[in-house]
Design a protein that fits this description.
The protein is an alpha+beta fold and about 200 residues long. The chain has two domains: about 90 residues, no CATH class; about 100 residues, no CATH class. It contains seven helices and four strands; from the N terminus they run ααααααβββαβ. The chain has a four-stranded mixed sheet. The protein is flat.
Length: about 200
């Protein structure tokens, strides 16, 4: 990594000044440049070419597992983790089925609510601080959205709601369930969404 950094900046600053700032002996840089490539790096370069060829031949949809199996079928003996590492270095990935689910669409112009707990999610008693979380679960019938209301003191789910859409009423229903479960009067209760603020 240091060798690549020096290579990138040597024309502008020179090798010795860069080595002085980085506190690396210039001889270390020159010996690294003179050293022949390791067997692993030579093998990686050869595998990268095969991986890209197979990935393109399969319409650029194969992920790590399928490329690993395709390499095995073509006679390449390589580990799955190595395929994942090389795909990461190449910047290629497989196509995932289904559409991407977006749970939030932030509006940069909207005002942000104040962080009433200053990222400190602790409570000294029940019904002092509730937090909420929205998540989704992929099912055979489609995407299910779930809202949980959690009492920070006991880590108990005090209210929840599942729905097929992410309407505001889902969160309000979860809050209504929590209020009903814990009583109508909730003195000193603070509510917070962990992802906001």
């Amino acid at each position: 990594m240091i060798v690549e950094f020096i290579d990138e900046h040597r024309d502008a600053h020179g090798v010795e000044p860069i080595c002085t700032v980085l506190q690396v002996a210039p001889s270390t840089y020159y010996s690294a440049k003179a050293r022949p490539a390791s067997a692993r790096s030579v093998r990686d370069v050869a595998l990268m070419a095969v991986i890209v060829t197979l990935w393109q031949a399969n319409y650029r949809v194969y992920g790590v597992r399928k490329l690993w199996k395709a390499l095995a079928r073509s006679g390449e003996s390589v580990g799955r983790d190595q395929v994942a590492r090389l795909m990461g270095e190449l910047g290629i990935e497989g196509v995932r089925r289904g559409r991407t689910v977006r749970t939030t669409r932030p509006d940069e112009r909207a005002s942000r609510p104040a962080d009433l707990v200053e990222r400190r999610f602790v409570a000294a008693r029940p019904n002092q601080l509730w937090v909420t979380d929205l998540t989704y679960v992929a099912t055979w019938a489609g995407t299910a959205y779930v809202c949980f209301i959690v009492d920070v003191f006991s880590r108990t789910i005090v209210g929840w709601r599942a729905a097929t859409n992410m309407a505001t009423t889902m969160v309000l229903d979860a809050l209504e369930m929590a209020r009903w479960a814990r009583g109508a009067r909730l003195e000193g209760l603070t509510g917070k969404s962990p992802g906001v603020g």
